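Q: What would this complex look like in 3D?
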Amino acid sequence: MQRFSALSLLGRALGGHRGWAPQWRRATPRAAYDALIVGGGGHGLGTAYYLASEHRLGNVAVLEKGWIGGGNTGRNTTIIRSNYLFAESAALYDHALKLWEHLSQALNYNVMLSQRGVLMLAHTVHDMQVIKRHVHANRASGVDNEWLSPQQAKQFCPPLNTDDLRYPVLGAALQRRGGTARHDAVAWGYARAADSLGVDIIENCEVTGIRRDARGAVEAVETTRGVIRAPRIGVAAAGHTSTVMSMAGVRLPLESYPLQALVSEPVKPVFPCVVMSNSMHAYISQSDKGELVIGAGTDAYTSYTQRGGLHISAHALEAICELFPIFRRLRMLRNWGGIVDLSPDRSPILGKTPVPGLYVNCGWGTGGFKATPGSAHLFAWTIARDEPHPINAPFSLERFRDGNLIDEAAAAAVAH
Amino acid sequence: MLLIACPYCGTRPELEFVYGGQAHLARPSDPAAADAQAWADFLYSRDNTRGVHAERWRHTHGCGRFFNALRDTGTDHFLATYRVGEPAPGLPQAPGATP
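A: Here is my prediction, written as structure tokens for the whole assembly.
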């Protein structure tokens, strides 16, 4: 692996940037591996990286049906935060946030983490009560989150319209450690680092079947590029997890919906932070390229189309125009959808399955990007040791049977 | 926006309807005899099919009635809508498909 440093960049610049090698190999599948990861997004690639780096399991392959980072990793609004209500969730997402803070150094790849602060707006008395409850719960569990008055929110984010709108801003929660990162760089950085530790990254390789032996344990996957044997298989296939897991006879508490996002034409830096309004349902931040990145909602019905209805994104834009009148004349460049897998309590499922040797990492719903390093780190632990880490132990599949839901859905009352 | 054919009112825009999730899920007939796993399966587990999906819709801003539909979740194309209590209509075989 060619390591990046100020010196190596300067050297290449003087040489006309010739001689850069590909950042990872184009691997062809071998007949057998110690472990397979199905899904080459951030969560899957990160899992392979932590298996190789922390658990000395280098004989690992990542199988991706398209190209790496081409699913939800490349389709989200890149927001990172950890101010969830319940202690289990806050521990999980804050584990991720702590890994984010050192990820560029660990991977020797700039993921462009920008901790510019995430502002969550309150528009009603109910919002204020819910958000203040979040603030207090977070502070009790050691996660930074603070309450701002409308004036303080306006000061933190000057383009914000706090009073001249149908639902005035009554206050906001601010997590200063929250922010954004460059989504593609996360996939590429993990791919490059995993590849350098011997992990095979196999693109254009769709899993079409999962083979199980006489005692029911997994033994191989059938793919569009042949049969690959492995005693351990981790599935991190986001919206398509139900499809993959049904090949092993496992039915999950998941439903897949299209979630939309949009970007505007690029403009000069005008927007200092991330703003989320759950009640009006819009998220917005500005990318380093200058585009405004706007998150919309999910469609009403399950679907795998990666599009979504236009009225959903129009609804998000109406909210943005109310909250930020300065953006009313901006034009949108693109909109798209990603297929998100929603669990009934809107918390992820990260752990073992009833099938020996088969592990699942799913249910991240509308907010999986922020968890990427933490999710990958804990999933690798679970696969390597055949038992969950204490942080992801509460996020088992059995919680639905045993009634131990981690009900962030009821806590937030909307997609988050 | 989808156009949905309510079996009672005819074709209307999606905004008049509310989605009701997977159709033909039967509540355990003897609730006391069903164990925790059976309840979890009924309450939470879903087929989440990629392909032809039988699902419930309610024409909230019309007749207010529930009905069922067959929709291809890969294309969002509606193949059929039918009344509650009726079995899901059979689909014509695609040419060359094996039964």
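A: To summarize the key features: Chain B touches chain A at residues 1-2, 14-15, 17-19, 21, 36-37, 39-41, 43-50, 53, 55, 71, 73-76 (CB under 8 Å). Residues 69 and 81 of chain B are 4 Å apart (CA to CA).
Q: Very helpful, thank you.
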